[in-house]
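so im writing up the methods section and need the ArsA/GET3 Anion-transporting ATPase-like domain-containing protein record in one place, dumping it here so i stop losing it
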Amino acid sequence: MSDPERGPRDSGPEAAFAGARLHIVTGKGGTGKTTAAAALALSLASRGGRVLLVEVEGRQGVAALLGSAALPYEEREMLRAANGGSVHVLAADAEAALLEYLEMFYGIRRAGQALTRLGAVDFATTVAPGLRDVLLTGKATEAVRRRAGGRRHSSDGPGNAPFHYDSVVMDAPPTGRIGQFLNVNSEVAGLARVGPVRSHADRVMEVIRSERTRVHFVTLLEEMPAQETRDGINEISGLGLNLGAVLVNMVAPPLLGGADLAAAAAGELDTAELVRGLKAARLETASAEAPEALAADLAGQVRAHALRHLLQERVRGELEGLGPPLLELPLLEGGADRAALASLARRLSEQGVGR
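--- predicted struct ---
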């Protein structure tokens, strides 16, 4: 089934990214959402363009990933693709976004700074929590609309000026909060029927609901993250937003072939053969245990691996049935760093991202 208003269904990865300029990445905590978002940004930059990666949770996760000091509130180039493309990173902050907003639209940055010193910004975002999300989503969507030549708050640049960024990737809140985060502008628009707040909310939602935006989900081949992904997809679809792809992270290859996996899962491994193999490798001499005991322990570990792999295959099948295409990222044995990030970006490009 295909629904062009809500994103590709039963389509390849290319369709999940085609024509999109804002990529919103969400996922359950612990799934590697920030790493996947950064890899996606670098993969998109492989086309030779300029990409902005926006972090909105205030965790400085991108800085930690790249081995950098805490990032200030500015768009700073942090990564280069092999063909000259670039990834700029913005650690978005609601307070700084409000000051910028007041300066851009009203020319009253000093008044905003006074409000900050008085604690008015924190008070306002505590009384109306949605305001913080409005400011953060507003910053990301402003970057999507921005044209070259200095026009920062209009989709109409000077003449036919190109966009300042070819793509914007948002490292968004986790799946448990993503619907509220993306729909909060509609709630604010309902409270403010006229005026600049309403206009701002309308502009934000115009971008978020447009065909230029996709919401991607990061998950693992485990039951709880997969269930949150399923719930998140249903929520985003219910809001009328466009689905992108499901990024399955930390995928480890099986250690055995199909027949051996099935035998191991059934507890039918030939322990006598394992004993012979241990003796041939002279591994029994490096342990105080007898080779028979080592073989039994090894058989137990292999069976656990086989059962885990079969569970992952079942979860993968369930994820495939959700509709959005699945892209896989391998488990990083040495942890995530810049080199590993480049490898992940290549894997995404090989699967259709950035084409």
